[in-house]
């Protein structure tokens, strides 16, 4: 059973000085509760404050204000080496002159653990991350994915309270990223370790997280399950960041308990009222957001007309950039058997929307 509020960030603030007498607020009064055994991902663009938050939790940065509480104990003044929260870095941070065994064992030797304990614990950690047989090699003899698993084993062997990840997969190619993130999630679930993970990769966050925390300009703008974040974005920023949404300007022409009718591209669309931001009224100027997979492009049927500007075959899907009267939109079609329309550059097409997937925000 999960322990609620195992790790708490209460009104956390971090200010930096830019060298010209100005104060830059990197983290702006954020609060977050993490349950024991939960996998939480901080997601956002570069400069949003996610890595600074992680470094404060690790003890590498001292917060300007606020509290970090672990298991009901304030750890504001506990040094990093006493927090038992190892961090897996983007750069692996392995010792090139030490063998894989010695790299994994490094933290245990610093703690002056008995040799038998070190041997047994390293063997277990290597087995968990599929490194058995590689213990006598050196980091330079391993692939990037294997080196990242060494870094993971080095953290796991310490039997941590919480394990921290700072964009650990950024240096790997696409296939290795998928393999390694699956390995990280498998081990985390197997051991029931609490994980705090930082990334700017939306698909990575969606695939491994129990909870995603979206950050922007030093603030938390939304948190929830991957399904909730993806399907119910709180504002246009989240809608665009988590799904590369298409945006349109419109005006509410009718509003009732079931549907909101919005003028769009010289026509009207009916959208479930549940998809509209609270507090909207008839006559309001609004922003409509819809994800590319909810845009249907057809050769000769559809509510609106446009022209193919770019056609990108991506294997499982094809992505189209469609030029229309007011600009461009993106559509993504699955390449299921018998349903592939191979539209080409310059081809005239029709398009329509799955209106149940529109989100309506006040402009």
UniProtKB/TrEMBL annotation:
InterPro entries: AAA+_ATPase (IPR003593), ABC_SmlMolc_Importer (IPR050093), ABC_transporter-like_ATP-bd (IPR003439), ABC_transporter-like_CS (IPR017871), Mo/tungstate-bd_C_term_dom (IPR008995), NA-bd_OB-fold (IPR012340), P-loop_NTPase (IPR027417), Transp-assoc_OB_typ2 (IPR013611)
Segments forming domain ABC transporter: 7-242
Cellular component terms per the entry's GO annotation: ATP-binding cassette (ABC) transporter complex
Keywords linked to the UniProt accession: ATP-binding, Nucleotide-binding, Transport
The keyword Transport belongs to this UniProt entry's keyword annotation: yes
A GO MF term: ABC-type transporter activity
Ranges annotated as spanning the membrane: none
SUPFAM superfamilies in UniProt: MOP-like, P-loop containing nucleoside triphosphate hydrolases
PROSITE patterns, sorted: ABC_TRANSPORTER_1, ABC_TRANSPORTER_2
Protein name: ABC transporter
Lineage: Bacteria, Pseudomonadati, Spirochaetota, Spirochaetia, Spirochaetales
């Amino acid at each position: 059973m999960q322990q609620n509020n195992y790790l708490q960030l209460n009104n956390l603030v971090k200010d930096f000085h830019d060298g010209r007498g100005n104060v830059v607020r990197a983290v702006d009064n954020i609060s977050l509760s993490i349950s024991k055994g939960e996998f939480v991902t901080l997601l956002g663009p570069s400069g949003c404050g996610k890595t600074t938050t992680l470094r404060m939790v690790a003890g590498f940065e001292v917060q300007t204000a606020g509290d970090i509480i672990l298991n009901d104990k304030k750890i504001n003044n506990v040094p990093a080496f006493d927090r038992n929260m190892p961090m897996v870095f983007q750069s692996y941070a392995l010792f090139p002159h030490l063998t894989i065994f010695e790299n994994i064992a490094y933290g245990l030797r610093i703690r002056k653990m008995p040799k038998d304990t070190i041997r047994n614990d390293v063997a277990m950690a290597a087995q968990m991350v599929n490194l058995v047989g590689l213990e006598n090699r050196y980091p330079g003899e391993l692939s990037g994915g294997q080196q990242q698993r060494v870094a993971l084993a080095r953290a796991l062997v310490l039997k941590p309270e919480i394990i921290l990840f700072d964009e650990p997969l950024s240096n790997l190619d696409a296939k290795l990223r998928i393999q390694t993130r699956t390995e990280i999630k498998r081990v985390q679930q197997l051991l029931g370790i609490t994980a705090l993970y930082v990334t700017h990769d939306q698909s990575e966050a969606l695939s491994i997280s129990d909870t995603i925390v979206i950050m922007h300009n030093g603030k938390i703008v939304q948190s929830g399950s991957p399904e909730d974040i993806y399907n119910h974005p709180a504002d246009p920023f989240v809608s665009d960041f988590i799904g590369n949404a298409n945006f349109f300007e419109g005006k509410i022409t009718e509003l009732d308990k079931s549907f909101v009718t919005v003028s769009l591209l010289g026509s009207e669309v009916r959208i479930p009222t549940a998809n509209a931001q609270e507090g909207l009224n008839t006559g309001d100027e609004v922003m409509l957001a819809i994800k590319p997979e909810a845009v249907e492009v057809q050769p000769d049927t559809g509510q609106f007309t446009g022209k193919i500007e770019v056609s990108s075959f991506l294997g499982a899907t094809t992505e189209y950039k469609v030029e229309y009267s007011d600009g461009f939109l993106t559509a993504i079609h699955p390449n299921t058997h018998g349903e592939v329309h191979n539209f080409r550059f310059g081809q005239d097409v029709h398009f329509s929307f799955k209106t149940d997937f529109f989100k309506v925000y006040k402009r």
